Amino acid sequence: MLEKKEILDVEKVIRDFEVLTKDAENVQRETLKMILEENGCAEYLQNLGLNGRTDPESFKACVPLVTHKDLEPCIQRVADGAFSPILTGKPITTISITSGTTQGKPKFVPFNDEMMETTLQIFRTSFAFRNKEFPIENGRALQFIYSSKQIKTKGGLFAGTATSNVFRNSQFRKAMKAMQSECCSPDEVIFGPDFHQSLYCHLLCGLIFHEEIQLVSSTFAYSIVLAFRTFEQVWEELCDDIREGVLTSRITFPPVRSAMAKLLKPNPELADMIEKKCSGLNNWYGLIPELFPNVKYIYGIMTGCMEPYLKKLRHYAADVPLISADYGSSEGWIGANINPSLPPESATYAVLPNIGYFEFIPLKENVEEHMQENGNVSFLSMEPKPVDLTEVRVGEEYEVIITNFGGLYRYKLGDVVKVMGFHNSTPELKFVCRRNVMLAINIDKSTEQDLQFAVEEAAKLISKKKLEVIDFSSNVDVSTDPGHYVIFWEISGEVSDEVLTECCNCLDRSFVDGGYVSSRKVDAIGPLELRVVRRGTFQKVLDHYLGLGAALSQFKTPRCVGLTNNKVLQILCDNVAKNYFSTAF
Ligand code: AMP
């Protein structure tokens, strides 16, 4: 008998979302109350003297703003198997390990059933809006998803990356079926121990089911680009496997081999067709729709540090829409993309007011005004006071603070967001950048976004020659006097010294931060250095992180390397092929 397929009631999901967002202020109060009632007995809250109070005012008066570092000892005790409630009322059974790619080292954060539920709520919400505009029916998804190794902490808790915790969850799998977005690859591939082998098999599965694929996705857009770059290298081998019905010997893990053997049958017609299509493409333009003629859209997080990969993704996608996935972190989800037809560069995320209690630290120019309005006249300390979810202002930038069901209270996430508008009474946020990724030598404060902009400008000079910057990072070199910015580039082919010197000058001129420009003019910052690294260097950086236990699904190339990730700096420096100094200014 055929299994009855449960289909998500998207109209109901949208109705529920509308109700929640119409009354965001009250929903926030109620959510905070629930979090504090559920976890009031936890040692962390007990020590702060809330004495059972659950209103936002008491909460803010008693509970300090914290970073991960402040909570680390508590989280470690949880991971070590502490018997008493430390951060949450109910025991934490799972730990998420963050990618560690922005701050240098992976961090532990608690994960529990409530966080799983919020994950599902976010996924369902964005799917409901997406499916109205881009319906998928009875299709399969080619998902480049990978699990990290699951380890057991000293206290016996399972620890893995947040995405792995989610992929393993049975409720999540059921939800994916209901959203008709089931991954076309068998579990053995997703949970395989070697990402190179899993990536090859994902591609093979996609080709086997090529007509049924309606969706190509990954957690972050980086993995989709990496997958099709790999396809360019291995497509002939993939065709051989399909032609003969025998998996290449490079896949060595027996469970992956036997799972793939069940899918792979000799199919010379399919192999011929793929070969013909690949040979007919111009520099792989439009590869995705060519291979998967029924694909409706491409889905994954495409904002923030993923934007530099969009150009390449568009090249592979031709006119297939790119839709950015939702906004969240291992620490918790924040918002859903409910405007899927917007291009990723304009994507915003509507905050779901019942998945956590959110506060926002005003940044930049709006600090003073917010402080006056909030009656905070301690201008001397200039400590900006966080505002509530419904108090944020359109056009302003803020740092996000999360309080959630997983034992984080007033936790500074370190992300900068800009309020673009409101959906009912909940804000729609644009992701701006990580707050701590910053190049600074003198009075300059160049953000991840400033760096991305400069690289984008300079890369235009090599795109005229049909070449591209595959990946990039940066560092401040203060071993010279004055110190200077160093930008590392991996490029897709050979470029003349003349053009690269021009790129170096362009990078130097394109940092828009006022502090940088004025410091450069008076030589308080030295000429910018462009270091071109050998092909495959950023793959070594990726391998380094995977070796530390990170999962490809959550990987983000570190855009600024230095003290906290010395090893990465060393990999980059060891692989420099050429370097150039700017003559601009
Ligand atoms: P991790 O928990 O290690 O996977 O990293 C979470 C971080 O990824 C967030 O704090 C953001 O900096 C970034 N991130 C997550 N979702 C998005 C998004 N939709 N757009 C831009 N950056 C994102």
From TrEMBL:
Residues 449-561 form the GH3 C-terminal domain. The keyword Aminoacyl-tRNA synthetase does not apply. Keywords: Ligase. Belongs to the IAA-amido conjugating enzyme family. GO terms for molecular function: acid-amino acid ligase activity. PANTHER family: GH3 DOMAIN-CONTAINING PROTEIN, JASMONOYL--L-AMINO ACID SYNTHETASE JAR1. This is Jasmonic acid-amido synthetase JAR1-like. The keyword Secreted does not apply. Residues 349-434 form the GH3 middle domain. InterPro entries: GH3 (IPR004993), GH3_C (IPR055378), GH3_M (IPR055377). GO terms for cellular component: cytoplasm.
